[in-house]
Amino acid sequence: MNTQISPEVMGQLEAIVGPSFLFLDQATRREYGHDETEDYVFPPAVLLKPGTPEEIASIMRVANQHEIPVTPIGGRTGLSGGALCIFEGIGLSMERFNKIIHIDEQNLQVMVEPAVITQVLREAVAEKGLFYPPDPSSQGSCFIGGNVAENAGGARAVKYGVTKDYVLNLEVVLPNGQIIWTGANTLKNSTGYNLTQLMVGSEGTLGIVTKIVMKLLPANQYNILMLVPFFDAAQACEAVAQIFKAGVVPSALEFMERDAIDWTLRFVEVSVAIKDAVQAHLLIEVDGNYPDVLFAEAEKITQVVEQFDIDDILFADTDDQKNALWRLRRAVAEAVKSNSIYKEEDTVVPRYELPRLLTGIKSIGQKYGFKSVCYGHAGDGNLHVNIVKGDMTDDAWTTEVPKGIREIFELTVSLKGTLSGEHGIGYVQKNYMDIAFDPITLQLMKGIKQVFDPKGILNPGKVLPDRV
Amino acid sequence: MNTQISPEVMGQLEAIVGPSFLFLDQATRREYGHDETEDYVFPPAVLLKPGTPEEIASIMRVANQHEIPVTPIGGRTGLSGGALCIFEGIGLSMERFNKIIHIDEQNLQVMVEPAVITQVLREAVAEKGLFYPPDPSSQGSCFIGGNVAENAGGARAVKYGVTKDYVLNLEVVLPNGQIIWTGANTLKNSTGYNLTQLMVGSEGTLGIVTKIVMKLLPANQYNILMLVPFFDAAQACEAVAQIFKAGVVPSALEFMERDAIDWTLRFVEVSVAIKDAVQAHLLIEVDGNYPDVLFAEAEKITQVVEQFDIDDILFADTDDQKNALWRLRRAVAEAVKSNSIYKEEDTVVPRYELPRLLTGIKSIGQKYGFKSVCYGHAGDGNLHVNIVKGDMTDDAWTTEVPKGIREIFELTVSLKGTLSGEHGIGYVQKNYMDIAFDPITLQLMKGIKQVFDPKGILNPGKVLPDRV
């Protein structure tokens, strides 16, 4: 690969996007050189802001010919470093692809460009009485294209699934500049290999998504939100599997450790009174169109959690209260970040294994001398583990913590789980991939990458480990 | 490829599976040489019935070394010829992989071997209060492994999704005899390329599935089933999209043309009185745990369909009545088959396009001189088109019908649909793949096939067109 771009090639790139959409200044390159992943900054040699799939195709043809790395950049909210330009080269900001092309009310579908902000999309379809469920915590700033790239989830995934469950068809620019559609605009499809699902979650390493066709659901009218304080964190985890066993599928089932909520209460203006002895909370939502059913389901959930050692359940009575509780939950990552340097892991296990995962993480932390704040989508078995630097020495942070992370992932995989539930592998987790997959399977993935990108120019150094 | 197997290699195969699981007699080979696809018979040179993944691995190593084609064979209910041994070689019957390994009531998951009959699986989990929704019409005899291979759907897909939406993780024997797991037993997974979803629907061309981990749902207790007779078939199709627009997601929404129901009534013992002028029926089910909600949803559906020209709605009052209506619906394909030589297409479009698809199919039939019987999962936009030979000449059947099928698929794709919703491409549809995908995309699929199966020995001559 060529990390340097010759003046001649730079001229070709400028001719493609126009001079106002090519940026060489340090400030812009630095701005686009980071996402939300720890404190990494990898600026591109040049930042481009193309406006059409055809412009991207032209850029890719030039990059392919000269073997220049190209890194697609979305909303830069990623937590695994998927958008970092680790080999410099071309940073390809997708931000001009920001149109909702068509909300198809007849077929309950939407065609959207990748730089539409997830919340904007959710609100636009809601205005038509429709529902796009995936709601990552960063929904106010992340791009739907990034959600596709990372197969993002969010709080509602427990009932409604993740991004992949809504993607029907994708327009994709391949690394060699060819443009394809991966499938059809249908709810069912058994026609050839599922390139659509292969593309979802491939973190911008196989192609650049330029249009997305997604399915929608009819909107729900009602929900009930309850916050359940537990005096024991492992019991909160145990309650999660019991709720499903009782036959209820909540629309959200979130877990927050005591530290997560304490740190966040200092960060956002939400007032919740919490007894000192409370160790964890479950935030539980049920939704639907029939209030009586929701009351019945909330009652079933109450019966389950009351078998554990809990404090009084808080039912959110108003929309304001609901919004406050969600703000609290969504701000945890930012709150931790504002407190300390940290690393965020995105462990996921079968949900009944959560108590074992949580206990194991804490004892691994003790062994290697780090503290962790755990929270996340417990209904999916998806536990975010924020490892905080606090007063650890730099030396311990760089030598001991990676060993601890490796043990956490080994524990996760031994519980039939895996490395990432919804954040992706990207740059920061790639060298743990050998824990989740044997060399044969990694070779298959590498083979697929080579089919799409024989020269290895598209988002290089991501997903697959350095040595495959 | 070697279609002939030397005595020495045959000895190696016998040593692997044991003499009682290797079959060379014509009757067995012929029996395993066909599925439910038209009247095709392609017997293997030898039929093997291995008992473990390791035996399959050993067989694949021998086959790979000697470049002998291997065709995995499941319940032989396929409608696209995916299990036909078109190059003879080894037929690999999976029938001994018939155990439900573990129903995990804590995590709402099941681990199952591929030769478990779908209905057996559904009933086994139902006994534990759990629900495996996909229910292809052949569920009484098809294998769950075949469902995975073809990404099978069924009547409940409209609300609950298809097979792919339940598969979490797969144990797979690769063409070179290596054994891998594709993912993890988790509801969410953003860890590397999605090999699980790539394997689902790949029709046994990339690997041989030996274990399947699937998610389950809590069982629903109630349902309401209604049969709505329409005096105009296109109006029945129009009503489908309107039902969703009214905010109801039925658990089944099936369409049957008049001919489909008439032929089937002669084939199964079910009594339904139908007025002469009725041209089509919708069979509509809603399900859930709250009878009041189901009554409300049935009422909403009634309000929608009453805007069209319909006869009296029949509500199934008893389980017997419900079973009779479902028997009627499920027997359509067999009834048509018993009446005439036929070809079955599995068209799928966005559901609002159904009236245009139906009208188009009829006029294409007139142009080429064939009659068709249409029915299927209208809620998904999935219309099965049975083209019946009736009194067509053999000459017209072999020359005109393929032209008509090509036009039907071109129409389907022009409506943003595709060739197959749930039956797969297999042998009989492969040379129509150029209608759904451009040469670039087909080359990507061929590249993926080569990554998994460089020698092209596993289920050769399926899915991809003869010329890519």
Task: Describe, in plain words, how this protein is organized in 3D.
Chains A, B: Residues 40-219 form the FAD-binding PCMH-type domain. Chains A, B: GO terms for molecular function: FAD binding; oxidoreductase activity. Chains A, B: Its cofactor is FAD. Chains A, B: This is Glycolate oxidase. By secondary structure, chain A is of the alpha+beta class. Helices cover 36% and strands 19% of the residues of chain A. In chain A, the strands form four sheets. Chain A has a seven-stranded antiparallel beta sheet, with helices on both faces. A five-stranded antiparallel beta sheet of chain A has the order 5-6-10-8-9. In chain A, strands 1-2-4-3 form a four-stranded mixed beta sheet. In chain A, helix 9 packs across helix 12 and helix 13 (354-368) runs antiparallel to helix 14 (394-414). Chain A is globular and about 70 Å long. The relative contact order of chain A is 0.12. At the A-B interface, helix 7, strand 11, helix 8, helix 10 and helix 16 of A face helix 7, strand 11, helix 8, helix 10 and helix 16 of B.
Features:
homodimer; five-stranded antiparallel beta sheet; alpha+beta; 3 domains; 36% helix; Vanillyl-alcohol Oxidase, Chain A, domain 3; Uridine Diphospho-n-acetylenolpyruvylglucosamine Reductase, domain 2; seven-stranded antiparallel beta sheet; Uridine Diphospho-n-acetylenolpyruvylglucosamine Reductase, domain 3; globular; 468 residues; 18 strands
